[in-house]
Specification:
Elements lengths: L8 E8 L15 H5 L7 H17 L4 E4 L7 H6 L6 H11 L1 H8 L10 E4 L9 E5 L6 H4 L2 H11 L6 E3 L17 E4 L8 E6 L14 H10 L7 E5 L2 H5 L9 E4 L2 E5 L7 H15 L4 E5 L6 H7 L5 E4 L5 E6 H4 L2 H12 L4 E7 L2 H4 L9 E7 H6 L8 H6 L1
Helix pairs in contact: 4-5
The structure holds N~2~-(3-carboxypropanoyl)-L-arginine.
Length: 401
């Protein structure tokens, strides 16, 4: 079992490992990169190695890291449920000939984008002092909706239900409760162990939403109830129409938060500046302090450039020695305006002390940056000790993989 001293709360990142059927199916609706790279040749081995290298960086930085195993694909049970019969070879042959798009969907390794696996609220935010997890239904995309049962199962095995962890079933699988999880959830708090503000972002509110909208308000509200969050420390924000039209299909493509720092594009939310004021007010009520908000003007980085470089899909992590690191896609350093902005952040009066570009190009071509590939779970040492030890990333395990 993993061990450690009691009381300390650290953020564990669980990364989805890429499976051998990784490919470019053009399956992500509203996802500009997925559409652009449709039917290009993929390299599953390179994809897996890129993901492992990112995990190794986290381990080298002294941060807790774990691995979510890839799910079984092609998902034969899904093909059989849709009427393909016979031996596995028959099923695959006929599906490949008659319904190649279906075969692509049931072969997608989309569970690698672990930020969509579940919503998670740490113990400091919940009424019963347990970590709450709700797996997503991902109903907006058929290929992703196939992930839910295996995701629920693996999360329950990694984080045993009981004194430390509470698991809820995924929300009803209908558009009204369309839920894409932590990719639309941010948490701001003075530190991982203190009560914080949970921000839920949605693109649809009883309507279809525009552009790339996937997450519904009804889902966000249901998750906040299930996780027994305090209403004065919960903020619901609607994505702006401009962001949705530009292909911001999840909030983590346009904002990222860690502890007291929020990096956000000025066009992220429909309410504009008032949205950030609501976050500030809730944060001040929870902690008697103000968060550090770095708002990026469209004149400095356009929505289109934010979507292309995936700047906001960086991982913002607290370093053991103090300060934060931004783990960004290499594409950010290849873009002059974004790279300049990164240098300004590094030189500025804020917690960011390091920028680490990582190459996750195989995932990026399907619209998944560094932050899409991970699910964050803040745990104290007692909770960490009850976790399934086999998924904790160590240098030998990463080497073996
Ligand atoms: O759901 N891409 C994923 C990318 C998810 C990114 N996640 C976050 N932003 N958190 C999606 O659109 C593409 C698969 C394909 O086209 O083969 C895909 O599913």
């Amino acid at each position: 079992m993993p061990t450690g001293s009691p009381g300390r709360v650290r953020e564990l990142n669980l990364d989805g490992l890429v499976g051998p059927t990784h490919h470019y199916g053009g399956l992500g609706l509203g996802n500009v990169a997925s559409q652009r790279h449709r039917h290009e040749i993929s390299n599953p081995r390179a994809a897996a190695l890129e993901g492992i290298a990112k995990m190794r960086l986290m381990v080298d930085l002294g941060l807790p890291q774990a691995i979510l195993p890839p799910q079984e694909r092609p998902l034969m049970s899904a093909l059989r449920r849709l009427g393909f019969a016979g031996s596995d070879t028959d099923v695959l042959t006929v599906a490949g000939r008659r319904a190649p798009d279906l075969l692509s969907a049931v072969s997608s390794t989309s569970s690698m984008w672990a930020a969509n696996a579940a919503s998670v609220s740490p113990a400091a935010d919940t009424a019963d002092g347990r970590v709450h997890l709700t797996p997503t239904n991902l109903v907006s995309q058929f290929h992703r909706s196939l992930e839910t049962p295996a995701t629920a199962d693996v999360l329950a095995r990694i984080f045993p239900a009981g004194r430390q962890f509470a698991h809820h079933p995924a929300l009803p699988a209908t558009d009204h409760f369309g839920d894409e999880g932590a990719a639309n959830q941010m948490r701001l708090a003075p530190c991982h162990g203190s009560a914080g503000v949970e921000v839920f972002v949605f693109g649809r509110d009883g309507d279809a939403g525009g552009g790339a909208a996937r997450q519904s308000r009804a889902a966000a509200e249901a998750v906040s109830r299930l996780h027994s969050l305090s209403s004065d420390r919960t903020v619901f924000l609607r994505q702006s129409d401009a962001a949705l039209a530009a292909g911001v299909f999840h909030n983590d493509v346009i904002a990222v938060a860690n502890e007291r720092l929020l990096l956000v594009h000025e066009q992220a939310y429909r309410e504009g500046e008032a949205a950030l004021d609501r976050i500030r007010t809730a944060y001040a009520a929870a902690s008697h302090e103000l968060p550090t908000v770095i708002e990026v003007p469209a004149a400095v980085i356009s929505l289109a450039d934010a979507v292309t470089t995936y700047l906001f899909n960086s991982q913002l992590v607290s370093l053991p020695a103090g300060g934060m690191a931004l783990i960004c896609p290499t594409e950010c350093r290849e873009h002059p305006a974004v790279s300049r902005w990164l240098d300004e952040v590094l030189a500025g009066d804020n917690p960011v002390v390091a920028v680490h570009p990582v190459a996750v190009r195989q995932s990026m071509a399907n619209g998944g940056g560094p932050a899409c590939l991970r699910l964050r779970v803040a745990v104290d040492d007692a909770a960490f000790a009850t976790m399934h030890p086999g998924v904790v990333a160590t240098p030998p395990l990463l080497e073996a993989l």
